[in-house]
Amino acid sequence: MSKLHMNCCNEVNDEEDYLCCTKCKNGYHRACLKSTGQFSTNTDSTNDWTCPACMSRRPKGNSENTPVRTKDTLLAYDKNVTKKSTKRVAVSSPETEKSSQLEEIREMVSETVRAEMKEMLTQMRTSIKSVLNSELKVIREEITDMKNSINFINNQYEDFLKEYRSDVPWALRATWSLRAVVAGAVRGAAGGVEAHSPAAAPVPLARVRRADCVPRPRQVMAIRQCVK
């Protein structure tokens, strides 16, 4: 039978009390393990014991503890895990505080930007409203002047129509009166010519003077009174 390879020391001696790894099948003297503190005196865990080399090759984060798997060691392992996790939280707390500070800074910046934007919008509304009011005021004044001009022209036109309507009958009456006066004057002049001429010898029309056909001053005054 070949001797078992001892991985804990250079001695090849399988007669001493040793343990055999269930993974690599290498042997480890109990005395060597006890001297390094890698094995306890409990003998119940020798059937599924794993050497330190195989344990180091396991993935990190495994919750198994080496080498003893008793209830006491599990409780101790849980306590160690709890302590480690608490320490990790304590280590990560500055990052949490930093993130909270950054969040507060973001909120402050957002509030400042919102306040500035609100003030800018208010100023823009005020300036736009002022410009529009001034321009609309000028337009209203121009429209008012146009209305006044149109009303003035309309009133003048209405007065002209009234005067025209009142003057037309007066002009017609004056025309007919003037015609009557002229006709009367012509007849009077013709009658005077006939009175001064002999009865047997009528005066030719060519001998009637123009002066006899011109109205007398009294007749002119009568015409003026009719016109008035």
Class by alpha and beta content: mainly alpha
Helices and strands, in order, run as EEHHHHH
**What's the count of strands?**
2
Number of helices: 5
- Based on the structure given, which CATH architecture of the domain at 1-64 is correct? 2-Layer Sandwich
What profile does the largest beta sheet have?
2 strands, antiparallel
Pfam families: PHD
Organism: Leptidea sinapis
InterPro entries: Znf_FYVE_PHD (IPR011011), Znf_PHD-finger (IPR019787), Znf_RING/FYVE/PHD (IPR013083)
Domain PHD-type: 2-57
Structure description:
It holds the Pfam family PHD. GO terms for molecular function: zinc ion binding. Residues 2-57 form the PHD-type domain. InterPro entries: Znf_FYVE_PHD (IPR011011), Znf_PHD-finger (IPR019787), Znf_RING/FYVE/PHD (IPR013083). Keywords: Metal-binding, Zinc, Zinc-finger. There is one protein chain. This protein is an all-alpha fold. The protein has a domain at 1-64: Herpes Virus-1 (2-Layer Sandwich). Helix content is 67%, strand content 3%. It has five helices and two strands. A two-stranded antiparallel sheet has the order 1-2. A hairpin with a 6-residue loop joins strand 1 and strand 2. Helix 3 (71-196) runs antiparallel to helix 5. The longest helix has 126 residues, at 71-196. It is rod-shaped and about 195 Å long.
Question: How do the strands and helices of this protein lay out in sequence?
Answer:
Blueprint: E1 18-20, E2 27-29, H1 30-36, H2 52-56, H3 71-196, H4 210-213, H5 217-227
Antiparallel strand pairs: 1-2
Helix pairs in contact: 3-5
InterPro entries: Znf_FYVE_PHD, Znf_PHD-finger, Znf_RING/FYVE/PHD
Keywords: Metal-binding, Zinc, Zinc-finger
Protein name: PHD-type domain-containing protein
